[in-house]
Design goal:
Tetracycline Repressor, domain 2; mainly alpha
């Protein structure tokens, strides 16, 4: 049987310091601490998955990176697949909802203005989240099938938003042609920040925006 003294020693060593789910209420300091720990685990996972690949990272590695034990990780995520799911589904939802908001704001305005804002939005994402882009490119297949389908559906929706705006801005282009251009622009934007590490972020951002505008006919 574990004594009180043993429990105090374990807590001091960080082995069992995570809050118990059943004792939490929204808005409490304990709930806030748990939310902060969850975000910390996601940040650790983002770094490790990008560096070593999903299959090269163990749950123990995530716990160690966050300063907690592997069993404590289970209080936040049931598996490392669940961590990957939150990262990739989450970023797909973010991009899709962000695109929807931009398109809605410009629904009655000039398509070119909407397109410029979409470009700025996606460049900002790519510049701030190169690890997530790398993880998605390499480890999407590791997601459970249902989550993988959800990511693909959200991606198609996001591409469709862009393509419809491009076809409005460039009426001479068919929707298929606009879609091809959008995919090409995504490929350029998504790959550049991770590869151009020797250039300043400002230079990379400026050049990406200019190249994307030129590719979509609004230079």
């Amino acid at each position: 049987m574990r004594t009180i003294a043993q429990g105090q020693i374990e807590s001091a060593e960080g082995i069992d310091m995570e809050p118990n789910d059943s004792a939490e209420k929204p808005g409490t300091s304990r709930a806030a601490a748990k939310a902060a720990r969850r975000e910390q685990l996601l940040e650790v996972a983002k770094t490790l998955y990008a560096r070593h690949g999903f299959h090269g990272v163990r749950l123990d590695d995530l716990g160690k990176g966050a300063g907690i034990s592997a069993p404590a990780v289970y209080r936040h995520f049931k598996s490392k697949e669940a961590v990957l799911e939150e990262l990739l589904v989450g970023i797909s939802e973010y991009l899709n909802s962000g695109g929807e908001s931009i398109v809605a704001r410009h629904e009655d305005g000039e398509a070119a203005s909407a397109l410029i804002e979409l470009i700025d939005f996606h460049v900002a994402f790519a510049m701030s989240e190169p690890e997530l882009i790398r993880i998605q490119d390499r480890d999407l297949a590791a997601l459970p099938e249902a989550s993988r389908r959800m990511v693909r559906r959200l991606q198609r929706s996001y591409v469709s938003q862009w393509a419809e705006v491009v076809s409005r801005a460039r009426p001479a282009w068919s929707l298929d042609a606009a879609t091809v251009r959008v995919h090409a622009v995504f490929g350029m934007i998504n790959s550049t920040p991770y590869q151009a590490r020797r250039s300043s972020a400002e230079v990379v951002g400026v050049e990406l925006r200019a190249a994307a505008r030129a590719a979509l006919g609004i230079a």
